[in-house]
Design goal:
single chain, 455 residues, mainly alpha, 20 helices, globular
Length: 455
Amino acid sequence: MQREKMASRIGFLFVSAGCAIGLGNVWRFPYITGKYGGAVFVAAYLFFLFMLALPLLIMEFSVGRASQQNLGNALRVLEPEGTSWHRMGWISMVGSYLLMMFYIPVAGWMLFYVWRTAAGSLELPPDQMPAAFGSMLADPAGMTFWAFLTSILCFLVCSFGLRRGIERVVKIMMTGLLVIMLGLALRAVTLPGALDGLAFYLAPDWERAVNAGIWSLLNDAMNQAFFTLGLGIGSMCIFGSYLGREYTITQESLCIVGLDTFVAMMSGFIIFPACFAFGVEPDSGPGLIFITLPNVFNSMPGGRFWGTLFFVFMSAAALTTVITVIENIISYSMDVWKWSRRKSTLVNGVALTLLTLPCVLGFNVLSFVQPLGAGSTLMDLEDFILSNNLLSVGAVTFMLFCCHKFGWGWDNFMAETDAGRGVKFPRALRFYLTWILPLVVALVFVQGYIQKFFS
């Protein structure tokens, strides 16, 4: 059976960008940019984005397009005879499941806050806002409902297939996300005092960067660049298999990285001017979204409208990621186990929906389970296993497979990457990709353990 393709190039770009663009772009990026000296961090981030993340994105797309398979089968199709690269295909399924086990509940939080803001139930005195957020986490029935609703809606979209379901819905959501983001940014930068927020965000502040720690700055910039595109578990590999050969993979990858970075940067234009306009600390951590910003919107004329729009924006960013990663799960079942899309959707839908429960209950019923030390949750454990382990292992697998002769090999990788019109991949990067970049990823891996257990 011929593999389904995207109906349009813009569909491919939006769906792939939708997989990359998530809550890390719209919350974590502006927060750590402010923490580490504004433009100082942005410069470090962009360096690592193009020297670390972009080559890995190109590799995932190349393996997907050449094999026309999900990662579960792609390595088997392309590997040299007698090798066992296909044994690493499990990373795609396990990594995608782990990601969705804690990402779906958080996406459910966003939907819940859309409803709460639109209904006016967050129009509370500032000192009551932390309790409102805490009450959400402490309610197992409510948390379960919103997580299950998110999962069911996203699996339903995927059940309609690539063109009629995923491409059509994600194109609408991504277009809406960009329009809402521009509207929110224009509103935020015209608030009184917004210029102070922009200066905090974008002006290079070396004193702030040094006080935060240069090594920490570089490590966080590297991690943000590496993880912003969700590389290493084959989420991009599957969309490479849906990609035509009209344009080079480098050309398409540059467009996706550009969209991803644009959304991240624009998020800062929303959050920091709003915080400074209303005298709110911009380094409020996770509470910035659920505690601090609702107070900002309550102080703003037309705040219920702008607050609802903001959480619609956050929900769109979260749901596009959920839909596209779920497609990776479904396609694995179809490619590797030869299930129909209907069976893949039903079985994985039930399994994954139930597997969100440890994360959901980890904030209430199972809050006594603290696997990574006092104050940690089951969500922290799931995130650590994925972010600090599987993504690094998957990234190194792609690099070795694409660059070494005992894998798919450099010549095959270059031939696939450069097929089509557009920007060609620089051949001069071979030594860097073969020997230096794997060491950089290993450094990220080791540093993740140091920060988690020894800092």
